[in-house]
Amino acid sequence: MVDTLEGRDLVNRISSNSESVFDEIIEAYGNKILKLCFVQLGNKEEAEDATQEVFIKVFKNIKSYNGDANIYTWIYKITINTCFDILKKRKKNYYEDISLYIDFLKDNKETEDIILRNLTSKNIRLALMRISEKYRILLYMFYFEELKISQIASILEEKENTIKTRLKRGKNALRRIIESEGI
Q: Fewer CB in 10 Å around end: N or C, the chain?
């Protein structure tokens, strides 16, 4: 199913008003978008609302998708912008509803970095929520979504070197919080 959600084939299906394409998009990307919204917003209900808002925007603007980029990259960008808009309205930097974070951020693979090896720790998750949202989203995109630097740069419309620098700063910020709290 996901294989058919790419490029020109998708554009042709959209322009022929194939209703099944909308179901396929939700089926293929709904959970990923929900997780991303939760990481950004820190609250399950807001994440669910934001996910609905994202897909409404996707469907309203689907004809503007030209097939040049991966559809997920296009949806991801809409998601990031939607979450940023919600955060601007809310004007909060710290999210108190962290209890459901466990359900959304389970990482089963081992990595070389102690931060990622210990993400099951509540304190690590709390530390992650305390770093700036611009770093948190990069860490999520790179480690959890396993997106390449070039993909992240495309989604966020930034230079690759900017993404690399922010990713490094994000890891350092997370490391400082972890070390200062003795985690």
A: N
How many other CB atoms sit within 10 Å of the CB of residue 125? 17
Please indicate, yes or no, whether residues 122 and 81 belong to a single structural domain of this protein: no
Q: What is the dihedral of CA 43, 48, 52, 55, to 10 degrees?
A: 80
SS3 164: helix
The C-alpha angle 129, 38, 66, rounded to 5 degrees, equals: 120
What ranges in the chain are assigned the alpha helix state H?
7-15, 20-41, 44-61, 71-90, 101-104, 114-117, 122-130, 133-139, 149-156, 160-180
Task: Say how many C-beta atoms besides its own lie within 10 A of residue 96's C-beta.
Answer: 9
What's the domain range around 173?
Answer: 105-183
pTM of the model: 0.58
Q: Is residue 178 part of a domain?
A: yes
Task: Assess if residue 98 is contained within a domain.
Answer: no
Task: Give the side-chain half-sphere CA count within 13 A for 153.
Answer: 11
* Cα–Cα distance for residue pair 93/74, rounded to 1 Å: 26
- C-alpha distances in angstroms, 131 versus 143, 165, 172? 16, 15, 10
Highest mean pLDDT among 59-68, 71-80, 102-111, 163-172: 163-172
Tokens 């620098």, residue located: 165
